[in-house]
Amino acid sequence: MREKLELIERESLDQIADCQSLEALDKIRVASLGKKGQLTGILKGMGKLSPEERPKMGALANEVRERIEGALADKKEKLERDKLNQQLDKEWIDISLDKKQARRGHIHPLSQTKEELEDLFVQMGFIVYEGPEIESVANNFDALNAPMSHPSRDKTDTFYIDDTTLLRTQTSPVQIRAMKELGAPLRMVCSGRVFRPDDVDDTHSPMFHQLEGLVVDEKVSMANLIHTLDVFIHEMFGQDMQTRYRPHYFPFTEPSTEVDVTCHACHGAGCKACHGTGWSMELLGAGMVHPNVLRNCGIDPEKYSGFAFGMGIDRIAMVKYGISDIRLLFDNDERFLNQF
Predict the structure, then answer these.
(1) Bridge partners of 260?
(2) How far apart are CA 119 and CA 164, in angstroms?
(3) What is the DSSP letter of 290?
(4) What does the alpha-carbon distance between residue 230 and residue 245 come to, in Å, rounded to a whole number?
(5) What is the pLDDT of residues 221-279, one digit of tens each?
(6) Which one, of 264, 251, 274, 116, lies nearest residue 189 by Cα?
(7) Which residue, 74, 63, 20, 19, is CA-closest to 39?
(8) Beta-strand (E) ranges in the chain?
(9) Distance (Å, whole) CA 206 – CA 64
(10) Is 6 flagged in the annotation as binding?
C-alpha cells in the first residue's frame, strides 16, 4: 500500500505541475482526491491491513492528501493570477491625461448672471434670502392676494403635487417667508428655479429662473422703485440703456408696471432683432406691495409700504449677452457654452 500511495502522490504532483488551466486542474483534483478518486480507493482497503500497519498507512495517506491539496492550492492561485494578468493585458484602460488636451470649465452664463445680479443688489443694501422650490399653495397664491378665480391657479398653469402643495410658479413666496420671519423694515432679494407648464419656444420654458426683490419700510414710494430699477439696469447693461414703464396688473402689487429696455443690438434705433421697435422683450414686472400682502405677513400697511420687482434671470442673460433663443441656455451645447 505504501508504494501505491507514493505512486499516486508522484503522478498527481507531476500532473499538477504540468497543468495549464483551471478546468484541467479541477479534473486532477477529482481524479486524485474525489469520492471515486485514487486516494479514496486506496483508503477503502485499509480494513485489510493488520492492526499494526493500519495507523502507519493512515498517517501516510493523510500526509499524501495534504501534499496534493497544497500543490493544488498553489497551482490554482498561480493559474488565477496568470488568467487575471492576461485579462488585464487585453482590457487595459489608459487613465493618464494629456494636459495639453485638458480643458478648463467655466461658470454657466445663467449662473454667472445670477451671481452678478445678487452681487449688484447686495451692494445696494439688499440681503439674499432663500426658499424651497416645493411650496405651499398658501404662500404661492393665498398670501400673495391671488383671487381664487385667478387663471394662474389653474392646473393648466401650475404644477400641483397635491391640493395644498405645488412647484413654485414664482419666487414671490420667498418674499412672504422673509416678511413673516424678519418683519419690517426689510430689503431682500431671492433667486432660483420656478416652474410653469409653458410650451417651449424661443422665449418660454417650463423651467426657468427668477430673481425677485422686496423693500418694505416707512414712506417707500413708486419713485424709490423706479430709481432702484434704473440704477440696476444701468449698472447691469450700461448707462446708455433706456427704460420704459407700462401699466400692468399683478394681484400682489398696486399699482403695477412692466419694464422694457432698449434693444441690446441697436440701442433703440430699430433693427431686425427688435422688429424695428427699438425695444427689447419685457424685462421685469414690478409695483407697490399690495396692503393685503403686508397684512397677510403681519406687517401694518398703515405704517409701512413697500415695492417689489421680479425678473427672469434667463431673460436678463439673453439681453446682456445678445442670446435670441432661451433653449440655448439649457441645451448644454459646448459650441454655445464655449463662447462664455
Answers:
(1) 244, 282
(2) 34
(3) P
(4) 11
(5) 999 999 999 999 999 888 888 889 999 999 999 999 999 888 777 777 788 767 788 88
(6) 116
(7) 63
(8) 127-128, 134-136, 165-167, 186-195, 207-217, 243-250, 253-262, 279-289, 305-312
(9) 77
(10) no
